[in-house]
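Hi F.,

I've been meaning to write this up properly since the lab meeting, where we talked about keeping a consistent format for the predictions we share between groups. The idea is simple: the sequence comes first, exactly as it goes in, then the structure tokens exactly as they come out, then a line or two of notes. No screenshots and no reformatting. I'm using this chain as the first example so we have something concrete to point to.
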Amino acid sequence: QTDARALRIEPAATKLVVRASVCAVMAFVTKKDSGFKTVVKGFLTGGTQAALTYPTEYVKTQLQLQSKTNPEYAGIMDCAKKTVQEHGVKGLYRGAGVRIIGAGFQQMFRWGAYTNLTQVFRDEKTGKLSQTNNIICGMGAGICEAVCAVTPVETVKTRVTDDMRRGTGKYSGSADAIVKILKSEGPLGLYRGAFPTILKQGTNQAVRMPLQVQIFSIISFGDDTKKQSPIYNGAAGFLAGCGSVLLTQPQDCVKSRMQSEAAKELYKGTVDCAMQMMKNEGPTAFFAGAIPRMVQVGMTSGISFALFPVISQLLNKVM
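Output, unedited:
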């Protein structure tokens, strides 16, 4: 009774955070959200989101790949402007095909893993998910998507965009890049930079999933009628995405370097790549492209969290 009275006199925002830390789970993810249906929802969410945000992903990769000592672009707008001048608007969508399909598979594995893992870690009596278990489910979802989708997709996307930046004309597109990589390097060629990718994605989702819950609880003031709202879920997802970038930008920069066309000649492995970046370019090299990535990740995360409940409602009517 004393605990109950203490909670009642606490400020509303504090109450919401306390409740969220005890019972943390996506507002729109219920006990019914598991199995094959969430896999379909994830694929549709990822493909739609990727099609809308790919130009920011392209610019981010270009800024990460350029030399810090002799940069080709002065910033986000300069990169976008020069790309359009040299290659037209379609240049901003170079490598987009594999990214859109890959994003569908990425979120298929992410949401499929997350929603199914939550069923394992929920409290049997209350059906709730603790904050710690939510972090574990998020990390599991991130590792799953990294191994099954993100690493090969990111490798192809980075090779194709780096090829265009260098003007070497080695690949005519994503499909051509996949064929040539498999032929010259075998399947492992698609998994260069796998370790930093797994670290990045695992950390991403371990931070993003619980953070979205906390932010949603604050901005919705505990209003249960907003649990399916794409606006509130999207806003919370956007802020959670921006927050996760701060912890994963170094891994993302190392990943991009390891997946570039020249990585085979420049680096012995992931650790060697990180050491060379620190030695030759300093700590700032690990945060190259941080602003466009924050915009891109925030947008993709916000759109994903906004789309997933909408797609869920639509699919629930036909499946």
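Notes:
Residues 4-23 have pLDDT under 50 and may be disordered.
DSSP finds twelve helices and no strands in the chain.

If this format works for you, I'll send the rest the same way.

G.
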